[in-house]
Amino acid sequence: MSEQRGALVIIGGAEDKRGNMTILREFVRLAGGTHARIVVMTVATELPLEVGADYIDVFEKIGVEDVRTFDVSAREAADRDSACRAIEKATGVFFTGGEQLRITTLLGGTQVDSALHTAHERGVVLAGTSAGASMMSSTMIVEGVGDTNPRVGIVHMAPGMEFIDGIVIDQHFAQRGRLGRLLSAVAQYPHHLGLGIDEDTAVIVRNTEFEVIGRGAVSVVDAGSLTFSNLGDLQNNDALALCGVKLHILPAGYQFSLRERKPNLERLTRSGNE
Amino acid sequence: MSEQRGALVIIGGAEDKRGNMTILREFVRLAGGTHARIVVMTVATELPLEVGADYIDVFEKIGVEDVRTFDVSAREAADRDSACRAIEKATGVFFTGGEQLRITTLLGGTQVDSALHTAHERGVVLAGTSAGASMMSSTMIVEGVGDTNPRVGIVHMAPGMEFIDGIVIDQHFAQRGRLGRLLSAVAQYPHHLGLGIDEDTAVIVRNTEFEVIGRGAVSVVDAGSLTFSNLGDLQNNDALALCGVKLHILPAGYQFSLRERKPNLERLTRSGNE
Q: Active site: which residues (chains A, B) (predicted)?
């Protein structure tokens, strides 16, 4: 089954919606092109009407005929058969930004949650931007302080929607100076690879590999190579010492093997720039 | 001679001047305590009177009896004997913030430049904050874009004052999201270690080792371990791909060997926190 899983399109926020729309076009292409059936999930935002209308405009502009929004403001709505049928018919599901905890607390364990996982298993493409990106993994960053060195307690984590294991995602990465908080997150469990995704930049995950698209870069923070960490001895707000972290900066066209924890340089598809 | 060189106190900007003043007190201690003779060099700033008066207040509050400022707004002034005599009598010289190019263009090659190097060789402590930190090394970052992924041309470099070799310094590091620009700098010559120094944080360099003091951390970016870089093929503003960069995050109390390019964990002097 897992060989037929749908791709994940994990976007670092602020993706272009007015110009070339590289990332959103790629999502549409993966979901079937103009024949795609797209559901825009506005669960994360408190402005579902505005945000939903904006994405409907964009996807229609790209040429998708069948776009609908799905909002949930109470868990009951996520247990309705009609909601599940919309997911079952979709070829692509797009999660907007907002607050990642709204997604997990409103959808987690509902019929829609199951329908999303079933859909993904049979090939439906799942995309998410900003909060919709963070929630993709099994453990997610809920919130944290930017523009700081790594410190204990500056990053608040919670279970995510579990569409992918073994990574922790941060978004708006370079733009909001989030190296410190991503390091604080992965230091807690260095098996997790940290993916810091810049704005208007995305990773397309297929099985255990991803490729980068968009304007910025993806910073892969691999704390598996740590030679020293003082995390065990510290209290809240104490400064972390981390020695021997491995860092890869991957712009558009570069690929990475999550299983081997290294870039796939032999399979470079583009110049690395668009 | 080089065994008797003075320490360098390289500060990431915005050091505490009102509270414990950990960093400025340590500079004073290294320069001889209350018997120190300190020259505050305001060459970098266009507000030498205000900035100079501020530091005179601070150093007097710490208990230093002999503090004077030295400003240069034209190169002629840096060739006067009186200027050199002030440096010759000092036990510590402190460079304020401002613009690092003012320091190198106003002092480079003058009698004061020679006097500073001679003084450093015979044990005088040199300190600098912000612009005064950047200029310490042989190659310095003049300016660059923050909050971005590494790109070609986003960082402008120039010769520094050459008090230390083999490193490139960036300041206000976590606070201004400068990982991208420091990576862009060291990628050009991966032999250089990148030192990203946070605000109210400093490295104390003695010979080929340094120790961290202050509130934040120092990020050591070692591109010597690069397994791949696309730098050769790119044009201005193209995104850099960098694979296999090594990263160390070192808060207060941690030491690093510049010669061995690794932390000295066996010589940890404090808990790593203050």
A: 130, 172, 199
Partners of residue A251 in chain B, C-beta under 8 Å: 149, 239-241
A66 DSSP 8-state letter: E
Residues of A in contact with B230 (CB under 8 A): 272
ipTM of the complex, rounded to two decimals: 0.92
CA A249 – CA A253 distance, rounded (Å): 12
State the residue range of the domain holding B224. 8-272
Question: What pLDDT is stored for residue A233 in this prediction?
Answer: 85
Is residue B44 within 8 Å of B96, Cβ to Cβ? yes
Q: Do the domain assignments include residue A145?
A: yes
- Joined together, the tokens standing for residue B85 give 């005599």
- Is the CB of A147 less than 8 angstroms away from the CB of B177? yes
- Cα–Cα distance measured from residue B239 to residue B68, given in angstroms and rounded to the nearest whole number: 46
Of A15, A99, A130, A184, the catalytic one is A130
Residue A3 is assigned to a structural domain of this protein: no
Task: Output the six-digit token pair for A141.
Answer: 């960053």
Which H/E stretch holds residue A22?
helix A22-30
Phi, psi angles (nearest 5°) of residue A31: -85, 0
Q: CA quadruple B260, B265, B267, B269: dihedral positive or negative?
A: positive
Mean predicted confidence (pLDDT) in B137-160: 96
- Calculate the average pLDDT of chain B: 95
Task: Please give the average per-residue pLDDT across B217-221, as a whole number.
Answer: 98
Average pLDDT, chain A: 95
Token reading at B97: 């913030």
pLDDT tens sequence across A72-99: 989 999 999 999 999 999 999 999 999 9
pTM: 0.94
**Considering the domain boundaries, does residue B2 fall inside one?**
no
CATH number, domain with residue A217: 3.40.50.880
Q: At A48, give phi and psi (nearest 5°).
A: -60, -35
Mutation target among A172, A221, A273, A274 for the B interface, most CBs of B within 10 A: A273
What is the number of structural domains in chain B?
1
Asked if residue B3 is part of any domain, the answer here is: no
For residue A66, with 0-12 CB atoms within 10 Å meaning exposed, 13-18 middle and 19 or more buried, which class applies?
middle
Would you call B92 helix, strand, or coil by DSSP?
strand
Spatial separation of the C-alpha atoms in residues A189 and A192, rounded to whole Å: 6
At A187 the three-state DSSP class reads helix
Select from A161, A148, A115, A102 the least CA-distant residue to A240: A148
Token pair in block for residue A16: 């272009």
Chain A residues within 8 A (CB-CB) of chain B? 146-150, 174-177, 179-180, 183, 198, 201, 215-217, 219, 221, 228, 230, 233-234, 238-252, 254, 262-263, 265, 271-273
